[in-house]
Amino acid sequence: MTTAGGEAANHIAAWDGSSWEAVGTGMNGQVKSLTVYDNKLLAGGEFDSAGGVSSNHIAAWGFR
Question: What digits encode the pLDDT tens for the residues 12-27?
Answer without folding.
Answer: 998 889 999 888 899 9
